[in-house]
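Quick one, tokens below:
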């Protein structure tokens, strides 16, 4: 990397006139000033355009017909000139030293290509009072896929990735109205890019009651969990059929013939499969697990038994 790298910051926005100015200002006030800021208005119908234009030539402003966050980010990516890319949500706030911390870490380890950080939650209009704080944690690299889908502790707007990552793995999947960021991070992880963390928070992640999604699939805050499951199903289905079983548990990769590890890995994969979206895959894994346990005369502990009973009940109800 260069000694003083340039960052490209992309803010995709849709109908966020009440929050987008604060997101933009948080970038402009960074202690590290080696950046460009690209704001992509994804066909807003409120006062978002008027709010953004007030920033004049301090930003690069683009407008497009509504197509969802992924399409807005993809447009911005076509015009980045920086070495590293930070994609900031239009309702979140970067802490003043975020880019400074990233620049220092990339200078210390030039092989790093993907870095995520800690973050803090804020509520509604109160951007000055964090309600909860999370430090970033680095799981075993072989378990990164399970980490992403199990704990959801990787906060996507904290991620800064080298431009090479996007050049290598391609654009965001525009079919995904939710989860397009997790799909991208998994693709980068599978491509073998070196990952790092900054433990401390560098971002305020805003919780609010505003609507989410695109114009074609708009939904309320109360519907986020259901929508996450819907789009998560598309991502997990792709992983299910593309990845070998050992990709879901790093210990199995070290001893792929161990019957107990195979059983544990099937349990872990079943745990991440969302219903009813992946009912066929769940039934397939349940059958594989039952035959494997019978063949090797294994048994489940109480927690695994309760999980499987609950899963079977759910599949029967959704059949």
């Amino acid at each position: 990397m260069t000694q003083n790298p340039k960052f490209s910051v992309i803010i995709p926005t849709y109908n966020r006139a009440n929050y987008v100015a604060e997101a933009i200002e948080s970038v402009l006030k960074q202690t590290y000033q080696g950046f460009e800021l690209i704001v992509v208005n994804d066909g807003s119908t409120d006062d978002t355009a008027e709010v953004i234009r007030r920033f004049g030539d301090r930003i690069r402003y683009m407008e497009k017909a509504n197509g969802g966050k992924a399409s807005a980010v993809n447009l911005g990516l076509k015009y980045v000139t920086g070495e590293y890319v930070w994609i900031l949500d239009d309702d979140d706030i970067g802490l003043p030293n975020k880019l400074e911390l990233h620049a220092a870490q990339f200078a210390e380890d030039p092989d790093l290509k993907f870095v995520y950080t800690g973050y803090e939650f804020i509520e509604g209009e109160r951007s000055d009072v964090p309600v909860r704080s999370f430090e970033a944690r680095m799981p075993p690299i072989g378990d990164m896929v399970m980490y992403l889908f199990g704990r959801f502790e990787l906060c996507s707007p904290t991620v800064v990735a080298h431009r090479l990552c996007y050049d290598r793995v391609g654009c965001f999947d525009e079919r995904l109205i939710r989860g397009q960021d997790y799909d991208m991070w998994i693709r980068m992880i599978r491509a073998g890019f070196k990952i790092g963390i900054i433990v401390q928070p560098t971002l305020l992640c805003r919780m609010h009651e505003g609507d989410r999604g695109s114009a074609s699939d708009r939904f309320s805050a109360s519907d986020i969990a259901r929508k996450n499951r819907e789009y998560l199903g598309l991502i997990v289905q792709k992983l299910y059929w593309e990845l070998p079983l050992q990709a879901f548990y790093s210990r199995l990769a070290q001893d792929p013939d161990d019957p107990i590890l195979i059983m544990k890995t099937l349990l872990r994969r079943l745990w991440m499969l969302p219903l009813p979206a992946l009912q066929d895959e769940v039934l397939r894994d349940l059958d594989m697990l039952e035959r494997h346990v019978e063949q090797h005369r294994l048994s489940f502990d109480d927690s695994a038994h309760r999980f499987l009973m609950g899963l079977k009940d759910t599949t029967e109800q959704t059949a």
